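Section: Multi-chain targets

For targets with more than one molecule, the full set of components is provided together so that the structure can be written out for the assembly as a whole rather than chain by chain. Components appear in the order listed by the source. The example entry contains two components.
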Amino acid sequence: MNALLISLEVLLGLFIGTYCIAVLQQLMLLGLRRVGIAFTLPIANAVQLLRQENLVPRGADFFLYRSAPFIALAVVALTALVIPLGPNLIGFDPSIGLFYFIVLLSPFVVAMMNAGWSQNSKEGLFSTFRAAAYLVSYEVPIGFAAIGPVMAAQSLSTQHIVQSQAGLWYVVWQPLGLAIYLLAALFVSFRHPFDSALAGDELEGGVFAEYSGVRLLLFKVALDAIFLILMSMGILLFFGGWQGPLLPGPLWFVLKTLVLSALVLWAGRFLPRLRHDQILTLSWKILLPASLVNITLVGILTLVIPGGS
Amino acid sequence: MTGNADSATRKRPGWFARLTHMPRHYFAVDGGSGAHLLTALSQRSPYAERVASPRHANLLVVVEPISEKLVPAIVEIAQALPRPAHALLVGGPEAVCDSSTETKPADLQKVLPGSRHLQQVSVEGLLDAVLDRSDESELIVSDGSEVDSPTIQLPSRQQQEMATELAVLSLGPIQPFTAGPLRLFLICDGEQVLSVQVESGYASRGIAEAMMQGDWQQALSLARQFDPLAPIAGQLACIRAIEQLQGWSPPTLLVKLREAALALERTQNVLWWLVRFAEILDVAQLLDRSYSLASALDECSARLWQQSPTTWLLPQYSGTTAMLDKNTATLTRLRQVAESLTALQRDVERNRWPALRTRSIGMLSTARLQAANVTGPVLQASEQGEGDVEGRLRTRLQLASGDLLEVAETLAAEQFLPAHAAYWTIPAGEAHAEVKGPRGTIGLHLESSDNEKPSRIEWQSPSAALLPLLPEILAGQKLADAEVIVASLDLAMAEADG
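Its structure, encoded as tokens over all components, is:
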């Protein structure tokens, strides 16, 4: 009963958070003068997709095509379990919370690959290849970026990582780790400018090219939700999680997550959509060496900073 | 572009109305004349969003005229739309070319029964029609004909670098990279384009043939449609040829005014191209700035002339300065737009981020371009620099900025011209005239055997000169770069197909 209640709470929180991300995106597009539209348009878009026909292309893989959006959403819900909104306000608190989180990110990309491959179209297949390339590329940098806070906190528990930042947020002495984490997080969530698997005009919408109706809505929700989850994990790893003066912990956590999400979305406005080879170059030639440098620096600083560990 | 009413003055819906207001996700089909209109629409309202796949759309917007060759592709798209779906056909009577020609426009009302038809082609009118759900009936597709899939000759395994499985990707004929339909078959080895086959003719309207069937006035009217995105350039080419036949030289002031109208049209074209290009690059900041500039310039242009340039451009016709609205506010606004464009040009040159996707791709040498008779910004970009996509972007902005500053100066000066009506007696003979259009030099060779109508007409199209170069410019490039390279050439398919 308790588990069911927690699951429902996590799902509710996830949907509200996803709505907030959709509103933020609209605000970035429309500006602050059209706040009303920014708040209502995501709901109207969702209703419109709910009313739309669910098409299945000719020759599509029966199981993979239908299950892909549900797998994506399920993965997001499972990763959300280990995000603590406040002290002991967490769905599931294993001692290896961060490891569990990073491992579960892979099935999300697998869901995207299933979606592309199962459509029985060349465009979908090309998108799948791109998604697969990203899967291999982001895994190492995001893992290495997360090792910094783990080394400093001496724990893989998400709650403990937040508590260990009571004196000093890790962003202060691990800015490189934050930068690597955010870039890798954009890879995972297929966000602009790393969204060529989804949004390339040459592939007519990429992985989602053949999806419509509820299934498309589920994918859109899953994409916004994974972005939200990754940003909240960023807050947890580098910005002290729920910690902050005066306001209640959960409110701090939500505020920090939304501010970080807004900043990342805003920064993306200045960049063009990157080509797949540029993304891979960034990952293997820049992020990977940088993350190794980061680990070395963090190791030294952990020994030097009093109370660093 | 006309009808640019300030969106702030439009009645704004309340909170509840907004919640119940269903957004439109539309898939746009441009028959060749609607690129600017559809680009303006895509940025006009958050409730009308253009989508890349017909599966995501609930409305099909088709800008007519549509050639018979394009109909199967439209049918295929209409069938791909999830239901409930609707169709909106857009096109004024002027957009439909002479039905006596061999290249008759298709009757889409028959192909897509239940679709609504909109004659008015202003952005605001189109937006209202897109958002309006009254009198809307379900889209029915009457014709089940399929798009031809031509046999593509693949290179042998020995000719391939890695001997992997090749894939043929068909881009188009309906795609956002060109103004109008064009089909590209990309033979890809993974993400690398090995070779390309181009299939054009989807926007063909037989303008030259139609011009030879009517009288001189009809020919002039049809000349406006040679490039529907630059009607002044087409008409001016025809007028210059006629005036050559008449042996009449226009006074300097009229020449200046004509050049100003032409330069204004060139700048408008560059700005709407830039909006499309920023959409393809997906740089939101560049998109916002270019869209606001393009809209502002359209607004200025609509207020600038008391008489439409198509009226006072007629052969040997001279108006007075009355045709120019000497409203100081409009001229001041024009100067502001010119300054903003110069600032944008500087920012684009300074901002290195877009160069990530534009530098060192799609390079064309000056010698190759000259051999192919290419003119305009594409050639100038190669002459001034490397001739890559970035160079073409910079050159276009530089030219547009210079054009607009010159227009602002020309129009601000006091000018008086003698006024007399158009003179229509055309002697027999032949003439060749050239006009600097937005995509290069538009040429017209004209022959007249009597006073009634032209006996031979031959157009020189700047976009058509670029089409044969597509296979060599795209071969060896990345698949993702193909769209950026093609978009950088600013091909107007109506003009290329004639």
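Residues 1-11, 95-102 of chain B have pLDDT under 50 and may be disordered.
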